[in-house]
Each structure stands twice: as C-alpha cells, then as structure tokens.
Automatic annotation (TrEMBL):
Designated name of the protein: BRCA1-associated ATM activator 1
Bilayer-crossing regions: none
Similarity comment text for this entry: Belongs to the BRAT1 family.
InterPro entries registered for this protein in UniProt: ARM-like, ARM-type_fold, BRAT1
An example Gene Ontology biological process: DNA damage response
Broad class of the protein's primary localization: cytoplasm
Keywords: Cytoplasm
Classification of source organism: Eukaryota, Metazoa, Ecdysozoa, Arthropoda, Hexapoda
PANTHER family: BRCA1-ASSOCIATED ATM ACTIVATOR 1
Subcellular location: Cytoplasm
Length: 956
C-alpha cells in the first residue's frame, strides 16, 4: 500500500531534524508544538509508522555525539513520550534500551533547560499509561529524577509537571503493589520526619528550600487525591502515622521565627485532615460524626495560630478549608432525624473570613437596627465553638496596626472563593462589604476622626476591593433588596462616592461599574412603573453625575459613564420610563453626540455611538432631541472617513437602528443605501460588514412588510395602501408583490451587495450573507419564483470596478482577465447581456475558464515574487504622494457605477445555481484545512527550512 502524502511529509520533516547543522529558527518552536498536538490527536496513527521508531533511535545516537539544541531536544522527548505511551511500541524500543540511554544522557549532561526537563517528565508520564512502563520506572528508580526536579528551583511549569507525575505514579501503583506507594511516600516525607525536626522544630542538615519544596510536593499529592477520591493516599497516611507526626512538627515549631514554614506545615496538615476523613465513609458517603471530628481538628489548628498571633496563616487556612470543603461536601450525608442543630461548615468559615472586614468598620452612625439584625443573623448561623474562636480572633485583630491591609486581603479571599460560594454565603459577604463602603461616603468623622473623602485618600486599595467585590457578588448572585436590606443604600453610596473630587480615575471607573450593575439588578418592574419622576428617590442624581463624568479628562472614565448611560437608556424604553425625562433634563443626548463625533479616543467614540443606538429606540428621545441632529449624515461621514474599525462598526449599527425604528427622508435614503453598500463591499473590518448586512436584512424585512407579509408569511387578505382597500392575496398577487420587492431591492443594490458578500474573505461575512439569502430564498421558492436548475453551479464572478495596476509587471496579468477600467463603465444593457451570456454557457466553457483562471493566478503570484522590494516600495511611495491630489479619483474607484447593477432576474438565476449551505461548508472546511490541517503544517515546516537565505515576506 502506497504511503500517504502526510506520511512522506512527516518523514521528510523528521529527516531534516537529524541534520547535524540544523539550527532552529524563530517559528520552529511553534511548529514543533503544533506538530506534537496533531500527533497526539487526530493524526495519532502516524506514530505507529516504522520511521518514528527509527527516528528515535537515530536521535539517541546523535545525542551521544552532540547535545541537540534545547528546542530539538524538547521535541524529541515529547515525541518519544507519544511513542512509548503504547506498551507494544515501548517493548520494541526497549530491545535496544533507547529510553534508558536517553535517561542516562540527561543525567550525565546535566541539562539546565527548563523546557527539556519538562519534556523529560512528560516522556516519563507517557510510560505511566501501561504496566510495562510503570515497572520500568520503579526498577530504574527514574522517579527519583522527577523528585529532584521538584526540589530544585525550577520554573513553575517543570514543578507542576513533576508534581503531576508523582501523583499519577502513586495512583497507578496503589491498586497493584500497595507497598511501593508507601515506600515512595516515606522517601518524599523523609526530610520532615527526621528526629531533629520533630523535637526542635528545625530541619538540620537540609536546605530550607528543600524542606519547603517537600511540603509543596506533599500538598500537591494530597490535594490531587482529594479531587480524585483516591483511597490509596488515605491508607498511606494511616500507615505512616502522618497526622500525628506533622502535628508534632507544627507544635514544636517556633512560630515567631518560622511563620512561612509553619504556614506550609499547616497547609499540609489541613490536607491530611480532609483526606483522612474518607476512612470513615459508608456507601461513598461521609458520616456527620466524621465531619464533626474533622471540624474539631481544624478548630484546634486555628486556635494554635491564634495563640501564636499568626493572622496570615489563620486566614490562609480558612480559605484552604473552604476550597477543600467544596470538594467533599457533596459526599457528606446529613442526618435529618437528629435533634441536634446542624451548622454548615462553610458558614462557620465565612464568619472567620469576614471578621477582619468587620473590625475595620469605623462609622459612628451605623444604623443600629440593621447592624443588630446582621449580628443576630450571624449568631443564628454559627455554633458556640465558632463564636468562642471568633471572639479570640477579634481580640487580636482589633490591636493590629495593619487592620485595613488585612481587610483588603480578606476581600480578595472572598473573591477567590466566589465561584464555590452558595447564595446564603454571598449575601452574608455582601452585607459586610456594604458596611465597609459606608466609611468612604459620609462627611462626618468616623471613630478614627477621618471623613469619607479623607478615608478615600488614605485607603484607595481597600475601596477598590470593596467596589469590585460588591459588583462581582451582585453580578454572580443577582442579589436584590429582598435578600439584603443594605441594598437600598447602594445607589446613595455610589452617588456620594462619585461626587468626591479626590476620587482617582481607577476608582471612578470601578464606582461607575458598580452603579451600572446596581441599575441592572435593583429595578423591580412592578415598582418602576409606579414612578413618574425620579425626584425624591435614591437615584435622582444619576443624570448630573453622568454629565460630570462624561466631561472627565480620563477617557476610561468617560467610557464607563457611557456604559452606565447605555444601561439607563435601555431600561428607560419600557422598564423604567421615568428615566426618559431624566435624560432629557440633563441634556445627555447632545453630549453623547458630541463625544461620538469629536472625542479623541476611539473607544469613547465607539461607546458613544453604541449609546446612541439605545437612544434612538426610545421614541421620546428621538422626537425631542435626536431627530433634528442629522444623525444619518454624521454616521455616513464616519463610515467614509473614520480610521478605526470599531467606530465604523457602531456607525453601521446605528444606521440600522434608525432605519428599523424610524424613517429616513427620501432625499437621504439613496445616500444611505450607497454608503451601506460600500460598507459591505469595500470596508476592511469584518464586523462593519456584518453590521451593514444586518442593515440590508432590515431593508428586506421592511419591503416584505410593506407588501403585506406578517411573521414571514402572507395572510389571505391584506390592506392595500396604494388602492386604499382590502385585497385578496392570491398566488398571482403574491408573486407580483414579491417581484416588486425584488425590483426595489435591485434598484437599491441590495441584491448585488448580498452576492458580493458571498465572495468575501471573512467567513463571518459569508455566513451572514448566506443566512440572509437563504431566508429570502425560502420565501421565493415557496411561491415558485426561483427557476429550477438541475445542477447547482459556482457563484458567477460579480466583482466590480477593477483598477488597472500601475506596475508594468501586473498589467498583462490583469489584462488577461479582461478586467479594465473601461469595461467597468459600460452601459447597463451591455453588462447585463454579457453576464447573461456567461451564465448560460456550457460546462465545457466553464472548464476552460477554470483552467485559464488557475494559469492566470500563477502568473499573478510569480509577478509578485519576481518583483523586487525596491520597486514595490517605490510604487507605494508614488501612490502616497498622489493621495492628496487624486483623492476624488481614488474614492471613485471604489464607488458603484450607477449604470452597473444586478437585476432581479440575474439574482434569481444566480441563487438557483448555488447550493449555499454546501458553499459555506466548503469555505469553513477550507479555512479549517489551512489553519489546523497536518499536511498544511508539514508544508510550512518544510518551506521554512527550504531556503535559509531567503528573506521573510515583506508586508506593505
């Protein structure tokens, strides 16, 4: 059986890597990584080729004479890992002991490259996938090499890969030879279990980094076993009596001078507690008695750190317990018949997390009733043991000088566990955040003698954490006034905060983001509809604040203020109509328009136009303000002259919104159609094209609606505006109306735009155009307007207005297509006649055209390659010099000629010959082939090494 092209290319690539003079280039690392991804995925069958085994043997022999470059050595080890992951291939390689030879070479050469060490660990991980490999690793004690990597000060990637290997090794060996994992664990824990360590709390004869790396490795092993529910590690903990030994190590440790070391030991002890709890489970469930015993041990550990006044370790243990509890909580069985009140363990822990925040509350006039309710709620949810420990913890926190820094760390820890919190815990944390925010907004001095503005200046990082925390909790858990009475004050707090002139730009952005989230979540529709005005409400200052912030010197503040205004305008349409008057009173519409046209920052201009999109949907804002601002002309100016694609994208979207919700003047409608047609055909930003196509989609919908279509179908009768009477919609009448729609769309160039978009280089544009055409085609086919064609044909070439290039090398090529400036200006009847003739030609002529196009394409490519860089630069420079004098001619080249168009008949004939779904699928497959196909990747690797003296392609 003949070799496939991919096999031949892979063999050539591997042969190139064996060249003694091989030197990696800048892209080789990327190529090698992608090649390994293919070989480990859909192309894994290529690993079975004999050439792969032979290549590994050759690279091992070459390695003995000369150490390869780190990139090639890393690739070779990764490649070897793929080969040896199958036990049959491993047995074949072991005939010559290739794996052992490579392992010895790495030891003797003492390679310092992190990428090579990581690849070596991955190669050994491939051996863990079968029994033969595991046996070889144990016999050769290669696992000690990986342990050495764990103890060395390596990169984070090497450390993680090494820890992962040790965990997998213990898991693989645990079910077959229980004694082997125990011996490996004893070797790992040996630095911690020395006699001197247990008695004096010191590790003599060992480097501190070696001890810390041992602790980190042990924690990784226990954490992985906790996730995988592996009973192997829990059995080893019991055999080695690790719980008692590590506890004695921590107790005998001098915590005042070894706080970091004590924190690592405490982390390990916490993992031991959570891992060993599995020893008392029944039917894969953890009994409440086992949970209670574990809680007691953890509380004793926390009490030990309180006695040592180690707040940092206390906080770290609490966060770690939250993460571990989340992993085992689903296996905990609750005794419903027990008369003893059950307290959730995560609730006890959240109280410990919040205490540093609550001890920082300094406002004198805190509402005693609200605070009393909050305190009573916490007491109801906590046990007596938790309360006693919390009081001891509070007494230490009060006397700390850095209590605000501790509160900041606490807030970050709350956000760290946000993804695993339930709604009850989130509400408790949210209320604590609100009481901390109050210190930053009131003018009266607090217990420390500082006013709110002074507090902002002194603790900006704490305020930033509060604002981020509140916004994140509201966004994730949709907290409203029903869960927390403190929510009622949030609008007032944010408004007072934004009035502070000393607020930094970063804090202003965070406060505006919090206001946006609050407006989105705290507006109950049943209450909003009862309000006709904002006077006297908690949000009556939103307009003046936004007006002030829209004049801010920092662009990110202006951009955030526009986002808030966009939300306000969005809910003003239906949900909260009182905002309409508020926006008009504060003259926000003209201000947004000024920002859209004149702001110096493109992001602000785009956000302003996006805000205008929301405003034009509100009838009152349009009638009272925006209708007289000539928005269509301004947006067309942006489409034609704006350099930033994100701004043009929003301008196209705004024109679509105006067309959908309002009516253009007849005098400007033709210009709008022309501008949107050009946006689809000639814009360089794909999102602009998609938004412009959405505009044309609305044009089609309006045309159909004007002819009586309702919800995609024609009713049996409709009212005719032209005849002013009810008309019976027969099949012939519907066909007449659809032909009228097609004629109008052809006149507006909509049909030509859709067919041109099908040939676009951006796949998203093709998707959108095909979707619109298929929707239109379904209506036309339903009423038998599309002619029947037996065999669909390719899309005819509808590219318009080709410009003859000035470079002499290209003229002949372009002339061979017959595409000159003069032919683009032919009368409509000549163009239509020639197009119809081409469409009706036979298959023989189509084959000739295809061969000619392929030949001409080769000529174009050859002309580009043969052209010198200097001539290309000269042409570019010449064009730049002529931009000012020939601006009108340049723009005219990209305009549609008024006499050239696609008629309705041509459009129907074109779509009848197209299979749009197949065409889109082929384009997607082609893109997938070019971007992620193995053959294409191998071609790139071969071409990158083909001519080392050739220059990279220049881009102009």
């Amino acid at each position: 059986m003949a070799d496939s092209p991919e096999q031949n290319k892979l063999e050539r690539v591997l042969h190139r890597f064996l060249d003694p003079n091989y030197k990696s280039s800048g892209n080789d690392d990327i190529y090698m990584e992608k090649l390994l991804t293919h070989l480990s995925g859909n192309s894994s069958h290529l690993i079975d080729l004999p050439v792969c085994k032979e290549w590994i043997q050759k690279i091992a022999e070459m390695w003995k004479e000369k150490t390869p470059e780190p990139s090639l050595a890393s690739f070779a080890l990764h490649f070897m890992g793929l080969v040896v992951s199958d036990w049959k291939r491993f047995e074949l390689l072991q005939v010559t002991d290739v794996v052992g030879q490579v392992s010895k070479l790495l030891k003797h050469q003492n390679c310092d490259s992190s990428s090579v060490k990581r690849a070596y660990v991955r190669m050994l991980s491939g051996l863990l996938k079968h029994d033969s490999g595991c046996k070889w690793i144990v016999q050769t004690e290669t696992w000690k090499d990986v342990l050495k990597f764990c103890h060395e000060n390596q990169s984070l990637y090497v450390l993680r890969e090494s820890q992962k290997f040790v965990v997998e090794l213990l898991d693989r060996l645990g079910g077959k030879e229980p004694e082997l994992p125990t011996s490996i664990m004893s070797h790992i824990f040996s630095p911690l279990l020395a006699k001197d360590s247990k008695i004096n709390g010191k590790v003599e004869g060992s480097e501190p980094q070696h001890v810390i790396s041992t602790l980190e490795l042990a924690c990784s092993i226990l954490e992985a076993s906790l996730t995988n529910l592996s009973p192997v590690v829990s059995d080893m903990i019991e055999k080695l009596n690790l719980e008692a030994l590590v506890w004695m190590l921590l107790v005998n440790l001098d915590g005042d001078h070894n706080e970091e070391y004590a924190g690592k030991v405490s982390k390990l002890l916490t993992f031991i507690y959570f891992t060993s709890v599995y020893r008392e489970k029944e039917e894969n469930k953890i009994l409440p008695t086992a949970v209670k015993a574990m809680e007691k041990k953890i509380f004793n550990l926390l009490a030990l750190h309180i006695s040592r006044r180690s707040i940092r370790n206390f906080m770290n243990i609490v966060v770690q317990c939250q993460l571990c509890w989340h992993k085992i909580s689903e296996f905990v069985s609750v005794n419903e018949q027990s008369e003893i009140k059950h307290f959730n363990f995560d609730t006890q822990l959240i109280v410990f997390q919040l205490l540093p925040m609550l001890t920082c509350v300094k406002t004198k006039n805190v509402d005693s009733e609200c605070l009393e309710l909050y305190t009573h709620k916490i007491f109801q949810l906590t046990s007596e043991e938790t309360q006693r420990l919390a009081y001891s913890y509070r007494d230490i926190l009060i006397v700390q000088e850095n209590k605000h820094q501790l509160a900041h760390q606490t807030m970050l820890s709350i956000l760290q566990i946000k993804s695993i919190m339930n709604r009850e815990l989130a509400v408790i944390a949210y209320q604590a955040f609100m009481y901390n925010l109050k210190d930053f907004v009131f003018e009266e001095p607090n217990a420390d003698g500082l006013t709110g503005p002074e507090f902002v200046i002194q603790y900006p990082e704490l305020l930033g954490a509060i604002l981020d925390g509140l916004a994140s909790l509201i966004r994730c858990f949709h907290i409203t006034w029903r869960e927390s009475v403190e929510t009622i004050c949030l609008f007032s707090f944010t408004q007072l905060l934004l009035k502070n002139a000393n607020l930094s730009p970063k804090l202003s952005v965070q406060a505006l983001q919090l206001m946006k989230v609050a407006i989105q979540n705290f507006m109950p529709p049943n209450l909003a509809l009862l309000m006709n005005t904002l006077q006297g409400s908690t949000i009556d200052q939103v307009g003046p604040i936004l007006q002030k912030r829209l004049h801010d010197v920092s662009w990110d503040v202006r951009d955030s203020a526009l986002e808030v205004l966009q939300v306000v305008t969005g809910i003003a349409e239906i949900k909260f109509p009182a905002f309409q008057e508020h926006v008009l009173e504060n003259e926000l519409c003209p201000l947004v328009l000024v920002l859209a046209m004149d702001d110096s920052e493109s992001y602000v201009r785009a956000s302003a136009i996006k805000c205008l999109c929301c405003m034009v949907r509100v009838q009152r804002l349009w009638t009272d303000c925006l209708a007289s601002e000539d928005l269509p002309s301004k947006m067309m100016t942006i489409l034609q002259g704006e350099s930033e694609g994100i701004v043009r994208r929003e301008a196209a979207a705004l024109l679509k919104e105006i067309y959908e919700h309002h009516k253009f003047l007849k005098a400007e409608l033709s210009n709008v159609f022309t501008a949107m047609a050009l946006a689809v055909v000639s814009d360089l930003h794909w999102e602009v094209k998609v938004n412009a196509l959405q505009f044309w989609e609305k044009v089609i919908e309006r045309q159909m609606s004007d002819q009586g279509m309702i919800d995609g179908v024609f009713p049996s009768v409709t009212f005719s505006k032209e005849n002013r009477k009810i008309v019976l919609l027969t099949e012939n009448e519907i066909k007449l109306r659809l032909n009228k729609v097609l004629g109008e769309l052809a006149r507006n160039r909509c049909l030509q735009v859709l067919l041109s978009a099908l040939q676009d280089h951006d796949l998203q544009v093709v998707y959108k155009a095909a979707d619109i055409i298929m929707t239109l085609n379904s209506v036309l086919m339903r009423h038998r307007l599309v002619p029947d064609v037996e065999t669909p044909k390719p899309l005819p070439d509808l590219v318009r207005n080709c410009v003859r290039p000035t470079n002499s090398n290209f003229r002949g090529v372009y002339d061979s297509f017959g595409c000159e400036v003069g032919t683009c200006l032919t009368p409509a009847n000549r163009v239509n006649q020639s197009r119809t003739t081409n469409m009706d030609s036979g298959e023989g002529e189509m084959g000739t055209v295809r061969s000619r196009l392929a030949s001409d394409s080769d000529q174009v490519i050859d002309a580009i390659i043969n052209e010198t860089d200097m001539n290309l630069l000269a042409d570019v420079y010449h064009d730049c010099l002529n931009v000012g004098g020939n601006a009108s001619s340049v723009s005219r080249n990209f305009n549609f000629d008024p006499e050239v168009n696609v008629s309705a008949e041509e459009f129907l004939l074109a779509i009848s010959k197209l299979n749009l779904s197949d065409m889109v699928t082929q384009k997607a497959d082609w893109l997938e082939h070019c971007s992620s196909n193995l053959g294409s990747l191998l071609d790139d690797i071969l071409s990158s090494q083909a001519d080392t003296e050739s220059n990279a392609m220049d881009c102009y």
